[in-house]
Amino acid sequence: MFLQGPEIDKRHRNRTGFGWSMAACQVQFDQSTTGVGILKTTFDSTPYCAYLGIRYAEPPIGKLRFRHSILHQPSGHQNYTSDGNICPQFENPMIRDRVLGDEDCLFANIYSPRVGDNSGVSSSKAHPVLVFVHGGSYLMGHGEKDINGVDLLVDSGVLVVTFNYRLNMLGFLKSDTFNISGNYGLKDQTTLLRWVQRNIKFFGGDPDQVTLMGQSAGAGAVTNHLYIQHSKNLFHRLIALSGSFLAPWSFMYDYPYCSEEYLNDLKIHSPEQLKLIDFREFLMETNPAKYWLPFASMGMPFFIPAEEREELHQDNYTVEKSHAAVLHPPVTSVPVLLSETAREFEDVVNSLQQFVFHPNIPQNWTKSTIDAFTSSVDDFISMTVTEGHASSREEVMQNIASVANMKYPMKRLASDLVQTLDPSINPIYYLRFEYDGRFGKSKHEYYSDFLEDSRYGAMHGDDLGYIFSPYILEQAVAAPDEYREELRTHRWTVELIANFIKHG
Q1: How far apart are CA 139 and CA 218, in angstroms?
Q2: Can you tell which superkingdom this protein's organism belongs to (predicted)?
Q3: Rounded to whole angstroms, how far apart are CA atoms 44 and 21?
Q4: Which of 158, 175, 218, 468 has a Cα at 20 to 30 A from 359?
Q5: Long-range contacts formed by 306-309: CB under 8 A, 24+ apart
Q6: What would the pLDDT profile of 122-134 be if each residue is shown by its tens digit?
Q7: Domain that includes residue 478, residue range
Q8: Nearby residues of 78 by Cβ (< 8 Å), 6 or more positions away
Q9: Structurally, how many domains does the chain consist of?
Q10: Distance from C-alpha of 142 to C-alpha of 86, rounded to nearest angstrom
Q11: What secondary structure letter does DSSP report for 161?
Q12: Is residue 398 part of a domain?
């Protein structure tokens, strides 16, 4: 499940009795197909409907494992009052302790400002739609990851869609030998966008006003969709928070070596074996470092998007190499908002050794090339400190990591978009989120034990606490004077995002 028990109540507050709530939140797909959700209220007392656990694609199991997801159209009476399964992942990927989730995981949640007439509030207006693609390095996360509510977005009249997509090996394994085309997580996202185009009107959403937003790996994914033919015209604006498909952690170049090594370790020798083994076996307990990307500032898996040519695989889906794709105009030309945080991961990277070199290196890199590269980086670090441009080697390393993994890939994408789009028709915006308040969950909870100092600036993911509802919302609402600055920044940030969603 996404969340269970009392956590659901913290995230969305019931407006009134359960039966009355369901009566207020109903969708009618056709004469014989209906769905029921739950009526909630925002902290500003605005009613809205939450529809949970909506199946948007057929279960990717059995013969549909390692295949393009198939759109699911609801039939009969649907009970949208509880969350669906999350996709398979480790509870803690760094220690690979316990496997969570299930392969049958392609579910969405919809939070709609439209409520039924019998609620006392009605609206026939179609609302602009925000489809959010979660982050998590393509190996963890779910639709509700780092989302603690949609209060101010709903208050702004925005309908929000969150969803799961396949992750890790099940989502991004690629093997020419076994006709596994890869990119299944991206294909799930395309299927979700198709489902939205077909069905969001029944929930009060406007299919002609869909904004696709992703954070971290989700940002890498959504920027990919700008150039994917199968996603053409399925969205009308795009927001990328702290990520780009040009980043070294967002595109696999040397997949044959990596995937064959992985399949050999699994003792997989035929396509039939891939269909029959339990999904938990794909999450092996062997040394995870063997499957990390090179040049990453932290251990990152190599199960990520890769090039796909439609003539080579049965899925008929095309994904270009990212650095080639940006040389021509996007397939879908839309207004784009790119956003970075002030510090991203700088404060949790402190050694050259964390720029790991593992199997996924460019094919023309030899050991001598790698040694020369490492030596050049080390010389640059020493020179920067010696000349007084930084106080320590760690500070230089942090800055290099930030530039290599976030700042350069995003600014390069912005530059390429400006060159290939007409900004007068499809403007390109670049935002830097610096505010360092208590709604930033990354800095004040996730990474608090790893920070060596308290330098000012928002970290990677802190901006989510100002777009969606913050993780300490209850404390803030109970003591608004104490959290005055955070609440003001929260409202300002949502207003900015909502204006882009509505007007581009």
Answers
A1: 11
A2: Eukaryota
A3: 18
A4: 218
A5: 306/172, 306/174, 306/182, 306/183, 306/251, 306/252, 306/253, 306/255, 307/253, 307/255, 308/174, 308/181, 308/182, 308/183
A6: 445 899 999 999 9
A7: 26-288+310-346+406-503
A8: 33, 34, 35, 36, 54
A9: 1
A10: 6
A11: E
A12: no
